[in-house]
Amino acid sequence: MPRTAARPEAQAPYARVKAWLKDGLSRGRWPAGALMPSEAELVARFNVSRMTVNRALRELQNEGLLQRRQGAGTFAAPLARVASQLNIRDLHEQIEADGHHHSATVHLARQEVATPALAERLGLLPGGPVFHTLIVHHRDGVPLQCEDRYVNPAAAPDYLAVDFRTTTPTHYLLQVAPFWEAQYGIEAAAPTAEEARLLGIPAREPCLIVVRRTEDRQRPITLARLVHPGTRYTIEGRFKP
What's the CATH code, domain 83-229? Predict the structure, then answer.
């Protein structure tokens, strides 16, 4: 059964403060680096305790949405900071940080016509232009990831002019089109015939497949399918409650 959203008055006091600030950030009320309302202003606006306000600000800071500077105030965080909190990292940086060499082979980089399904995912008009790249990333010469990516031209108009043999799409897009939100889908599945050929693996070898969509405050930016041979790649993370 679908769950209905809690009415504002039914929310915990700190949650009301947090939701109001988060909504303002998502709407661009406070651009990156802008000074946000002080604790005293929030106490007065919501008629709550300073402890309640502090909890709301602390949670938003932990989510990477704001920065608190003692003696200076609370500021909206740069969007790149949001990206780091969501753990979208440049594959080149990951490989080089582990002491290995990254290289890339660009198999496709062109403008195409958006299908109705793709247009819906990227906020485009069906039949309108969309940028498409197909790149295989290597670690020490061994294929590690097949990256099949579509990009909204309005978000990164110069995307196809980039040399993706030396700069990864992730690195470039984080520079020119920082995202506000990302959605992931992760599954273990067999690659397509083309992906198996590009990765140099058997057609039925299990792969780790990540489908990722990002958007800024106004529009979708990119939709990427990232395919990794299961024997060559793992996802690692750390959680601390």
Answer: 3.40.1410.10
